[in-house]
Amino acid sequence: MRKGEIFFGKKTRHPIVFLKEENSEQFIGCILTKAKTKIYQNNIALTKDHFEKTDETGNDYQTQFINSHFVSLKLIKKIDWGPFRLSGKLSDSGIHFIETELKKNDSVLWSDYMKRKS
After folding, report:
1. For position 42, what pLDDT does the model report?
2. Residue-wise over 9-26: b if at least 16 C-beta within 10 A, else e?
3. In this structure, are strands 16-21 and 84-89 parallel, antiparallel, or unpaired?
4. What residue segments make up the domains of the chain, in order of their start?
5. pLDDT per residue over 12-71, tens digit each?
6. 5-117 CATH pick, 2.30.30, 2.115.10, 2.120.10, 2.40.160
7. What is the pLDDT of residue 116?
8. What is the CB-side half-sphere exposure of residue 107 using CA atoms within 13 A?
9. Which residues, 6+ apart, have CB-to-CB distance to 23 below 8 Å?
């Protein structure tokens, strides 16, 4: 996995952007979603130029910009949620945008974040 690559895992419903390896069992990433909701007001809008349209061989990526947002959390993801399937890639500007937005946040497991929200 490389920074900015977008994956689906067998235990995930949303695409995950890989940001960095945490250790041999976990990595840091963020979730892509379609919009802000009443429950998730902190979702941040992305733009079309934040995404690569095709891979190195010219094939279209599955994950493209369609009203895309990301959850404003640096999430700890578990390697055993795989296998992971590559579905897209952020552009350099997309990686920079997300890293800038998330640099003030500590990494958190989604389950721990949801416990704090309730």
Report:
1. 80
2. beebeebbbbbeebeeeb
3. unpaired
4. 5-117
5. 888 999 999 999 999 999 999 987 666 667 889 999 999 999 999 999 999 999 889 998
6. 2.30.30
7. 73
8. 15
9. none
